[in-house]
Amino acid sequence: MEQLxxxxxxxxxxxxxxxxxxxxxxxxxxxxxxxxxxxxRPLGIxxxxxxxxxxxxxxxxxxVSNAMRIISLVGPAKTGKSRTxxxxxxxxxxxxTIVALRQALPGQLHPLNELLAAGRTNxxxxxxxxxxxxxxxxxxxxxxxxxxxxxxxxxRYPGCVLAATFTTGVTDTPLCLPEGFADPVxxxxxxxPDEVTRAQDxxxxxxxxxxxxxxxxxxxxxxxxxxxxxAEHKQPIGWALVRVAFDWHRLxxxxxxxxxxxxxxxxxxxxRERPGVAVSDATIxxxxxxxxxxxxxxxxxxxxVHIASHETxxxxxxxxxxxxxxxxRVDPTVRKA
Length: 337
Known about the structure:
With 337 residues, this protein is of the alpha/beta class. It has helices spanning 6-11, 23-26, 33-36, 50-60, 81-92, 111-117, 137-141, 147-156, 193-202, 208-212, 214-219, 221-229, 231-234, 236-250, 259-273, 281-291, 318-328; strands at residues 12-17, 69-76, 97-101, 130-134, 161-168, 185-186, 257-258, 303-305, 313-315.
C-alpha cells in the first residue's frame, strides 16, 4: 500500500496476494473463533455451503477473457456471505491479487471512481489476475456504484474479477442491480440437512435448530439483540445511541453514522422522549463505550470504522436493524426522498 499514490489509497483498503493476506485484517471478516473458541485457521472452521460453493466454483473458474467477470453473492444479513465468497476466492484463485475497495460514503466520490481517476495503476499483478472485492455492495449502489464505472473498470483492467456481496431484506437495492449483477449466486439463510450434519461434527454442543442458522449463531445476533432490548431502562443513553444508529441505517445514509451526528441526534431524542435522563458529554461517552463493548466473545452493537480521512463512523448490523424494525413495526427499507 505504501507504494500506491494518495488517490489510490483513498480508494483501496488493502492490496495483497490471496494466499498471503489475513482476511480478518485485509477484508474485515469476523473470525469464528471469537464466537466458538475453536482456534483453527485465522477465520476458524468453515462449514461448506454446497449449492453456493458449487456455483461460485463454476463462475470463478470460467475461462479468462478480456471481459470483466462479475461474481455476486446475495442473501439475508448474517448468513455468511462474505465468508462464503472469500472461501470461494481462496479455493479457486489462490495466486491472484485481491484489491479491497474502501466503504463508500453518500455525497463523496465513490472509491471506484477515485481508483479510475488515478489512471492505470500497478496493483502488483496483471489485470487478468486481479480480484476487486466489494463487500456490502448494496451500500455502494447508493453511493455511486453503477454501470458506467463498472464498464470503465473493465476497460482499465481487462479480464479482472469483481467479487461483490449484497444483503437482501434490509434494503431494496438488490432488486435493481446494475447490468452484470443481475444473476447473482444466492445464499440461503439456513443450512441444508447435509450441511447441518457436517456442522455437528465440529459444533456438537449446539442443537439441530441452532446449527440450521449457524452463521447467525456464530455472529452472536441473539446475544446482541438481548443486550439491546434489555438496556432500554437499564442503560437508556447507550440504548438510544443504538436506536438512532438503526434509524440512520434505515434511512440509507450509511455506511455508519458520524460520531458527532450520532451524539447530537441522541441528545435531541432523549430530550424529547426521556426528559428525565441526565445527558452530558460524559454520559454520552459512557453510553457509547457500552454500545461499542463486545458482548462476550461476539461483536458489539455499534462498531467504529475509519473511512479514509473522514470522521469515525459507527456501523450497525443489518440483522439487528431488521429485528428492531419488526419490533417497532416500522419500514426497514425507508429511503430519503
